[in-house]
Amino acid sequence: MSVRRKGATPSQLETLYRDRFEHFARVASAICRDVDLGRDAVQAAFMTAVRRRRDYRGSGPIEAWVWRIVVNEARRLAREPQAEAFDAESELAGNGHSEDPLDLRVWIAALPERQREALFLRYYADLEYRAIAEVLGIEVGTVSATLSAAHQTLRKRLEEVRR
Fold first, then answer.
1. Residues 58-71: pLDDT tens digits?
2. Which of 8, 98, 130, 157 is least crowded, fewest Cβ atoms below 10 Å from its Cβ?
């Protein structure tokens, strides 16, 4: 009988870093609203994961555990004063609309934080609802409701443009 060790191995984290770095960076950049800050967030998150690798309990996928660290680090960096975040309002023309009426980036930026993060984790990171719930610290049903609300808002914007 083999005994399962607690914690993540450096090898597991290195493999995850090599295989999924760009996915992590895209989502972190979207949260930070800055490509360089997003990449910095991923670097810092993996340093944290390596330092805290024994905290991984093995109760879920290691990737979901790392995603939570990445998202938290991206949120932290996005709040720092030196962060020059993408401002949806500054991208809008005087009439409250983007110069490009189909600028999905502006539409997504205008969503509430949880909706934005859920969208990024689902469609950029390609995570399942259960993993998104774990990363965001919410219930699976809340993930479904959050994505539904985001889709509804984006659908409404699209319908407005079509008129």
1. 888 899 999 999 99
2. 130
